[in-house]
Amino acid sequence: MTERRKQFPFDQFEPKWQAIWEKNKTFAVANPGDADFDASKPKYFVLDMYPYPSGSGLHVGHPEGYTATDIIGRFKARSGYNVLHPMGWDAFGLPAEQHAIKTGEHPRINTANNIENFRRQLKSLGFAYDWDREINTTDPEYVKWTQWIFLQLYNSYFDEKTQQARPVSELEEQGLSRDEIDELRLAYVAETPVNWSPDLGTVLANEEVEEWRAKGHTVERRPLRQWMLRITAYAQRLIDELDDLDWPEGIKLLQKNWIGRSDGAEVTFQIGDQSVTVFTTRPDTLYGATYMVLAPEHPLVDDIASDEQKQAIADYRVKCGAKSDLERTELAKEKSGVFTGGYAVNPVNGEKIPVWIADYVLMSYGTGAIMAVPAHDQRDFEFAQQYDIPMIEVVNSENLSDITSTQTNHGQDAHATGGADATCFSGEGIAINSPMFEGLTTAEAKEKICAWLEEKGLGGKMVNYKMRDWLFSRQRYWGEPFPIVWRDGKHEALAESELPLLAPELEDYKPSGTPEPLLSKATDWVNCGEGLKRETNTMPQWAGSCWYYLRYCDAKNSERFVSREAEDYWMNVDLYIGGTEHAVLHLLYARFWHKVLHDLGHVSTKEPFQKLVNQGLIMGEDGVKMSKSRGNVVNPDDVVEGYGADALRLYEMFMGPLEQVKPWSMKGVEGVYRFLGRVWRLVMEVDQEGNWSMLSKVKVADCDKKTLKVLHQTIKKVSEDIESLSFNTAISQMMVCTNELNKLEVLPLSAVEILLSVLNPFAPHLSEELHSILAEAFPDAISGELSQSDWPQWEEVFLIEDEIEIVVQVNGKLRDRITVSKDADKDEVEKLVLDRDKVKEHIDGKTVRKVIVVPGRLVNVVAN
RNA sequence: GCCGAUGUGGCGGAAUUGGUAGACGCAGCAGACUUAAAAUCUGCUUCUCAUUUUGGGAGUGCGGGUUCGAUUCCCGCCGUCGGCACCA
After folding, report:
1. A597 and A488 housed in the same domain
2. Which of A513, A542, A571 is the last residue of a domain?
3. Angle formed at CA A607 by CA A606 and CA A610, multiple of 5 degrees
4. What percent of chain A clears pLDDT 90, i.e. is strictly above it?
5. HSE of A531 in the Cβ direction (CA atoms, 13 Å)?
């Protein structure tokens, strides 16, 4: 392939243009306040999800989204916008540290090398980034502001009344104690069961467990003292404020489900002289509660356990504690539990029901206790069957006709008898065996019981969220240290002036195998003063990515994380493109930080990312996900080497819709490469020595009608398709246009210029090169660079045809075509059609019932 | 199990306020150029029936429905991919 003569000398002009752009800072954009800032233009902030600079370099999946944003950015810039299109590095991360463990080399070095490689690769693709705004999350200047934002969280609490973050200084003024305040901070310390991975030497967030487990690492649960971020405080706002965002509905739903709001009630039961509160979404089934279940870890278990059950309880707890989360769910087929010996009193009827512990009730959700209604809850039902606990039906599933038509009547003929084949009915219906609200619908019964509970002080409506607080500390080396010191067992924030706090150099990076963070090895660093010890945990990789988009607005500011002026001008991000793998975590975390910064008055918008688009995964040629082990990974460097950056960019966009999953095809790359070759040869010819020169058929000349039509169709289609991110169809239109121009004996300069102009965002090097060749040949007609020129406008007048072909159908079947003038009226067309031989043939012996004329499109003759 | 996507030629994919299904590209076939090949250019290319052109029929996962007309709208299934998974 590389031996073959190239269709066009991309290996010469691509590096040439890249060098020109770099030297001239062609794509640098000014900020408000800068000398060359043009305030008259609207702004457009188009953002890629920045990469983790891995050792294996760029993958063909990266340039998919990057090319899309590049086309948009170049298009917007030429359409009169100030465009912010930056790039940077999510450079903290475990792989660099793993490398350090193996080689002893500081992760900083490995990271710097990888970044250099990534930058080289991205530059070889000709992306119009403003490289002056490049950021690196491991840069001390960046770390400084990540730590500063952490301190904002640390020094804030969530005010329930206004649903906003407020400075904790307000609590001090209210006279709250130090301990009380520490309970309320958005960044707080808690002893919680965490996911500890001995071989990684760190704890992981719940959300990360699966990912690392899939990579073969072990993860176990154990209680540890950790930094947490109170993201749960924002649960409702994180749901509500999705509404105004232009995101795929599926992604919004994914986030909503992750946050997992459920509306229900809390109900307090008496157990002897203790009381226990349960959470239920079905308070209407209170009469059907035949037992209660506490989570095995529930603090009340010891108090209510009878002496004869104590041993069984202890044994069961040991068994549960040993189970990892995975095992707990994998063994979910069979329910297990132990009777505590205690009984709870159902507040609604005074019945005594047995209290059990079982691991299907989680301490971390709701109140860690449930009322079990086996007749109407699948899990309770299975448990009751297992332990032979009685069931009471309290919702009638029959005669539901108009209340619940399809979704809830699957258990209709089941009568909850506890028999082996019985099923339970978990849908809505009419309350029965429930004296207080006999005959009411589920919704009505819920209202009534909640009102009653509230009146009696036994509970009431309650909302719960599935989402947990964010476990924010890691025991790694290669992350931001917490700007915190400990004095007498209490944490204190470093002063802003002490930031950034950088990690000390270490002898080696090997994990100790205990949950003691790596930084604790650096005793000189840890003991930083009389009675002072530094926090030795570090922040997770997510920290840097929670605010990087803000830093791009003002990447070199040393006074503030972003100047108010720059933030106010550039935010929000108008278009954010990246993979679905970040649909929940990154996007949720970043939204959370952004809201905190907004509440505290540091940023002007409620949400960071106005429009979100997920690019689809690119599969290998074999249709499965690219992976080293399968050997189906395509390296962009090889594609650039063989076909050029423009061909790679064009192919990435031509493959299919941006959001769709699609397989790679080298043949497809060749296809677009050939197309670029055709565009090149529209203007250029080669001699036997392989030297290119301009063709003489390119002339200053007028375009004929047909050419004007296809040119203006192309401007229109490409403009509209870029706006709707339909790059594949934009490219096919440019192919159509090229094929038309190729047929011309004389190629008018203006025609080829239009084609190059719309091709420019897609294939910036080739279009710019041809443009410069034409400029040299026709200095009076052409000048400047395409990337700096105005985007062409189409004129409708060239699109209209005088005569239109109309399709003729008889009974919906295509039978004929006629050509009529563009303003022929309906009657005229109808007459014409009925006079056609082919139409007569097909309506022979039938009566014409109706003639449907769709102006400019078709005529359908209905006859029988 | 639940939620969300998706299903169109040999392949990637076009086309939806309902109006010519298969644009564009790949692969394939034929031709031109060439000593030859590559490259390039031109033509054909959903399936099927018919002796040929003209032509007939079928066709957008499957089965129904609405309509003059359905890839597009409605109802019911099936397959593939992704996410969640005892959250009370």
Report:
1. no
2. A542
3. 135
4. 70
5. 6
DSSP string, A45-85: EEEEPPPP--TT---TTHHHHHHHHHHHHHHHHHTT-EEE-
Element (H, E) at A289: none
CA A846 – CA A576 distance, rounded (Å): 60
Q: Are A436 and A452 in contact (CB under 8 A)?
A: yes
Nucleotides of B under 7 A from a protein CB: 3-5, 11-15, 19-21, 23-27, 38-42, 56-57, 68-70, 76, 81-88
CA atoms of A630 and A641, how far apart (whole Å): 23
Supply the range of the domain harboring residue A758: 678-796
Question: Is the CB of A365 within 7 Å of strand B?
Answer: yes
Burial category of A651 from C-beta neighbours within 10 Å (exposed 0-12, middle 13-18, buried 19 and up): buried
C-beta of residue A385 within 8 angstroms of C-beta of residue A391: no
Does residue A662 belong to any structural domain of this protein?
Answer: no
Helix-helix angle A749-759:A727-742, to 10 degrees: 160
A861 touches strand B (CB under 7 A): no
Alpha-carbon gap, residue A52 to A568, rounded angstroms: 28
pLDDT digits (tens, 9 = 90+) for A179-231: 999 999 999 999 887 788 887 777 877 767 766 776 777 777 777 889 999 99
Q: Please, are residues A168 and A175 in contact by the beta-carbon 8 Å criterion?
A: no
A379 touches strand B (CB under 7 A): yes
| Structure tokens belonging to residue A800 | 């209209």
Check whether residue A40 has its CB closer than 7 Å to nucleic acid strand B: no
**For A656 and B7, how far is CA from C1' in angstroms?**
16
Choose the final residue of a domain: A642, A666, A699: A642
pLDDT confidence tier of residue A415, bands split at 50, 70 and 90: very low
A709, A745: one domain? yes
**Residues 138-157 of A, Cβ under 7 A from nucleic strand B:** none
Q: Is A621:A632 a contact under the CB 8 Å cutoff?
A: yes
- Beta bridge partners, A765, equal none
Provide, in whole angstroms, the distance separating residue A72's CA from nucleotide B13's C1': 22
Model confidence over A159-179: pLDDT tens digits? 999 999 999 999 999 999 999
A583 plus A508 within the same structural domain: no
Query: Do A353 and A499 share a structural domain?
Result: no
Virtual torsion, Cα A354, A358, A363, A369, nearest 10 deg: -20
- Cα–Cα distance between A64 and A60 in angstroms, integer? 7
Output the CA angle A15-A21-A27, nearest 5 degrees: 140
Q: Residue A4 has what DSSP assignment?
A: S
Give the model's pLDDT for residue A1. 38
User: Is A668 inside any structural domain?
Assistant: no
Output the distance from A22 CA to B81 C1' rounded to whole Å: 42
> What's the rounded Cα separation, in Å, for the pair A139 and A94?
17
